[in-house]
Amino acid sequence: MTALRDLPVDQQVGLLFVVLFGLLALGSVAVMLMLRREDEASDRRLRVLRDLRALWVGALVFWLAWVSAPVGATLLFALFSFFALREFITLMHTRRADHRSLLLAFFAVLPLQYVMAGGRFFDLFTVFIPVYVFLAIPVASALAGDPQRFLERNAKIQWGIMVCVYGLSHAPALLLLNFPGYEGRGAFLLFFLVVVAVVAQLAQEAFSRWLRRRPVARHIDRSFSYRAWFAGALAAGAMGALLFWTTPFQAGQALAMGFIAGGAGTLGDLVMKALKKDAGVRYWGNTASVTGAVGLLDRVAPLCFAAPVFFHSVRWYFEL
Amino acid sequence: MTRADLAGGLLAFIARLITGAQGHWKGCPPKAEQRIYFANHQSHLDWVLIWAALPHELRAVTRPIAAKDYWTSTPLKQWITTEVFHAVYVNRARTDDQDPLDPLLQALGNGDSLVIFPEGTRSNKSEPQAFKSGLYHLAQQFPGVQLIPAWIDNVQRVMPKGEVVPVPILCTVTFGAPLLLAEGEDKREFLARARAAVVALRPVGS
Lengths: 320, 206
Known about the structure:
The complex is a heterodimer. Chain A is mainly α. Chain A has helices at 2-6, 9-35, 43-67, 71-91, 99-118, 122-143, 150-176, 186-211, 226-242, 251-278, 297-317. Chain A has 2 domains: 1-67; 70-317, no CATH class. Helix content of chain B is 37%, strand content 17%. Chain B has helices spanning 3-19, 46-53, 56-59, 68-71, 75-84, 102-109, 134-141, 155-158, 187-199, and strands at residues 22-25, 35-39, 62-67, 88-90, 113-116, 146-153, 172-175. In chain B, helix 1 (3-19) crosses helix 2. Chain A binds chain B through residues 82, 85-87, 89-90, 94, 96, 99, 102-103, 106-107, 279-280, 286, 289-292, 294, and chain B through 20, 22, 153-154, 157, 160, 163, 165, 167-172, 203-206.
């Protein structure tokens, strides 16, 4: 382990990607072998292949973000934000009078937020959307002169900005966060976050199947229960503790951070499921018959919730 | 690659970036057969959206209809409609000695596909207006050409009347099963049937 720590930062990060892609390749081969017996077009096969493709895309995006940081990473996640917000607004049935507010959200708020992330202006980055944009959007809306459902319309736009832009913009911010004595290793922090979020998700699903508790919110998610959630977050914490040597944290701190980020991610997924039901979407993906349900939003939802919580916990705890 | 190809590629890219321009082929595959696509009309973007939703190889042979007086009034407008979109120009002012459908018949005679909006004008209501009779006459004179209904969803939210900057909102174009003009079918009946075929493609919840 100490030999690894003595390597230059670039080589450590390079090693991280070699290991990551190696594991992915091994996993893919294993999955392919397993699927050989399955029927050509069985549902399970298609679903597994889709998930596998999503994993590969995710890993590639992560790598691209790293090699092109800070400009490339910021641009890449800005593009993701754009697509996620586009999907969100499509599902939310905005009215004509919202046009100007939406233009503001897409073409002013989103780029500015990412410019601040890319430029490492983290103090302004943190308050820009919760304070300034929060107050600016209703002003733009009021100037449009449509009083009907005023609060509801504004809430939709605010929420979309908060989740799709503010939440997601913390991913590149993590890449660029400067830890004293940990310079240039932001990739590990983002990697840590993504791994604990994924582990929390998988563990929660596994535990809910195993525990078979009564679902808390049956109309939203048939499998969500407090116990399963807790087990998922705990698994994420354990994974975090295992990975502590890649981060600036001690083992105990890594466990707490993993727990927080993983738990926030699975709660984010629950919220997105509620939103999906509200919008009348039953399946994501191109097969959905509702215009706008293309399936990016629910893939990034755990990250949208986990990233800001993780980022601010880290910043607050380490007084950065 | 010519300048027109580049401009076309750029326009299609922007349309996809802003609206997704997803084509859902529910009733027929995207094939290089001679076709008349007819759709609901709510916005200036309708044509660009259908065009961007078509596969690349179909774009060159699928032509829109453009009002001659408006779309030839400046060199830029004329360049876009002729070079990029290969539009068929029609005269809005009706003259006694000429059938306004003549240019369309000519284009169909050449073997091109057409996109028409049978409502004639843009409507901002959710239901399309009654269809004009042009579609019927085209179907009568070219029975071999497939008539494909299409529903364009959400586009009125991208750019409401009076606004100039589009908001990024996903749109879909749903293409339905080909419609056939029945033997001796009445004009009004056929147009009502065509309109119903378009409305039936509307996605749930919109």
